């Protein structure tokens, strides 16, 4: 890595520079749209974070509830819950880093404020947005499944029985130290100077830090390390126990963040003389950004490709167009074959009629990995050919953003649906009895959940996916780092994985109309068809909201919103 060199008792920068410290109050940022856009991004990111993670926690507790016939090995387990929290932080930091810095946590914001990376006004408004987003995220879960929310604790943090207050406080302090120290290390200007792909990779160790801390501290406090997360859940659950312990989830993380800031800035960054002015003032991760000049945004170091025409007659004469359609067909076929085979194999392994046990098979966690992992692989393989959509909702969102033409969008969707039917057909052809007995991987609304709950799960789940697609393929990222197109499939695959962890107990997780359609066609029973409209309407609404949010709000205003992506592929 880039290093400091000590000359004459003083440290000289070798091959990097430290941006100036943020002022305590920056009046100029209050006049810029980018400032308010960043606050909105923090609100939405924290909302999504709490929605997915709390939904995962409640789903797991529902699945292992003996009153509902659950067993200890049912559900995603503690490992799956830890993955939900860590994976969502990875995705959301990746998506929002270039907009707000991707804090999504008042403790992170507080640590960066102490390091003079953000102004006092920005820090306060970030924390307010994060807390409000957390309340709204938990509120969405409660609104759509109130009985489950109240019965299973609402994801609220509290000190577990058998642990002292000191133990809980120490867990929060040290856990937050691990997280904030990782944030400082991952966003250090020395790393940016050493290797251009560091800003792209930074969300990965940050997400892993959250994952590791959850593995260690879930048994003690349920893992806070994020005051907004604890506050939002406590507000919506509103029972005595979480409120009695609540101070731990503010004091602990703030102490841990302060220690991390002091350690990194004063000790690791070559002395107190330069310690508090060593980071950028605007974001946690350095990325290409819009620059606001005279009330308008100017492209700094990237350009937006022209919008795709509604009908592009020229592409109809090109072999690359038809090759892309074939690629979408084959990719969706493979996606359905592997994932449906995984689902049926799991149900077969736990079938008591075959001597199976609840702990046999890959479990819900393995099923979620099958869907997320296959999307990662197939997007990686087909991105340069078709854009790697493999999902009509993704295609629809990119069409709304004028990234693909209408003709391409229609033919992609047709190829995806046909591929899904063929993929499920292959599974059925080779194991027809198992296919019929174990549901054929078809989506339907689970017992105990309302239609509104299922529709909301599909809308928000698809929003998470399509928003990640937009963020991962943003021209700003391509301008900033040539590694981005190669790395983009990773957060997209993680998004699919996270959404499956949260929504498998509700709908079996659609978020892909072709996947739901292909399974319904081949299984061909009443229940999947009765609920089938949910798996088209929900994903299309979610994709449309993601397109509008990314294009009109995050991409610097409506004036340039619908013409900001390539016209030929997602990547």
Automatic annotation (TrEMBL):
Gene3D superfamilies: Glycerol uptake facilitator protein. Belongs to the MIP/aquaporin (TC 1.A.8) family. PIP (TC 1.A.8.11) subfamily. The keyword Lyase does not apply. Keywords: Acetylation, Membrane, Transmembrane, Transmembrane helix, Transport. One of its GO terms (cellular component) is membrane. It comes from the Eukaryota. This is Aquaporin-like protein. It is a multi-pass membrane protein. Its main location: membrane. GO terms for molecular function: channel activity. SUPFAM superfamilies: Aquaporin-like. Signal peptide: none annotated. The chain crosses the membrane at residues 39-60, 80-102, 123-144, 164-186, 198-220, 247-268, 325-346, 366-388, 409-430, 450-472, 484-506, 533-554. It is found in: Membrane.
């Amino acid at each position: 890595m880039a290093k400091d060199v000590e000359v004459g008792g003083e440290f000289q920068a070798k091959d990097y520079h430290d941006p100036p410290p943020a002022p305590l109050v920056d009046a100029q940022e209050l006049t810029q749209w980018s400032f308010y856009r960043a606050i909105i991004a923090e609100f939405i990111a924290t909302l999504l974070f709490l929605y997915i993670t709390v939904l995962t926690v409640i789903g797991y507790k529902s699945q292992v509830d003996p009153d509902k016939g659950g067993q200890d090995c049912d559900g995603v387990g503690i490992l799956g819950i830890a993955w939900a929290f860590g994976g969502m932080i990875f995705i959301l930091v990746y998506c929002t880093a270039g907009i707000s810095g991707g804090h999504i946590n008042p403790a992170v914001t507080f640590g960066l404020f102490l390091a003079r990376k953000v102004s006092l006004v920005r820090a306060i408004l970030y924390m307010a947005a994060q807390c409000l987003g957390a309340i709204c995220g938990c509120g969405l879960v409660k609104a759509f499944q109130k009985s489950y929310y109240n019965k299973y604790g609402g994801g609220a943090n509290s000190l577990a029985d058998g642990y002292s207050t000191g133990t809980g406080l120490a867990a929060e302090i040290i856990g937050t130290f691990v997280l904030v120290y990782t944030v400082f290390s991952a966003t250090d200007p020395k790393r940016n100077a050493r290797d251009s792909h560091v800003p792209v990779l930074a969300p990965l160790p940050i997400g892993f830090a959250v994952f590791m801390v959850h593995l260690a501290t879930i048994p003690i406090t349920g893992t806070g390390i994020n005051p907004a997360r604890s506050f939002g859940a406590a507000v919506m659950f509103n029972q005595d126990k979480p409120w009695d312990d609540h101070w731990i989830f503010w004091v602990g993380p703030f102490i841990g963040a302060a220690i991390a800031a002091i350690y990194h800035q004063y000790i690791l960054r070559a002395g107190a003389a330069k310690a508090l002015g060593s980071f950028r003032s605007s974001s946690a991760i350095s990325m290409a950004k819009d620059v606001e000049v005279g009330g308008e945004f100017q492209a700094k170091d990237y350009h937006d490709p022209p919008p795709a025409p509604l009908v592009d007659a020229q592409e109809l004469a090109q072999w690359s167009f038809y090759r892309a359609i074939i690629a979408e067909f084959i990719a969706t076929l493979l996606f359905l074959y592997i994932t449906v085979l995984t689902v049926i194999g799991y149900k077969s392994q736990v079938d008591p009629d075959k001597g199976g046990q609840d702990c046999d098979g890959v479990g819900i966690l393995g099923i979620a990995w099958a869907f997320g992992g296959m999307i990662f692989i197939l997007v990686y393989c087909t991105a340069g050919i078709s854009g790697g959509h493999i999902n009509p909702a993704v295609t629809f969102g990119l069409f709304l953003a004028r990234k693909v033409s209408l003709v391409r969008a229609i033919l992609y969707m047709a190829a995806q649906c046909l591929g899904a039917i063929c993929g499920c057909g292959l599974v059925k052809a080779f194991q027809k009895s198992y296919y019929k007995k174990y549901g054929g991987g078809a989506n339907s609304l689970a017992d105990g959940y309302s239609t509104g709950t299922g529709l909301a799960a599909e809308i928000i789940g698809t929003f998470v996916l399509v928003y990640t697609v937009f963020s991962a393929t943003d021209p700003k990222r391509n301008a900033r780092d040539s590694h981005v197109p190669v790395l983009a499939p990773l957060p997209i695959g993680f998004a699919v994985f996270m959404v499956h962890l949260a929504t498998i107990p509700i709908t079996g997780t659609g978020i892909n109309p072709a996947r739901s359609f292909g399974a319904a066609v081949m299984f061909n029973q009443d229940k999947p068809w009765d609920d089938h409209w949910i798996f088209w309407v929900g994903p299309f609404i979610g994709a449309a909201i993601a397109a509008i949010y990314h294009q009109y709000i995050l991409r610097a205003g409506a004036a340039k919103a619908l013409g900001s992506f390539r016209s030929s592929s997602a990547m």
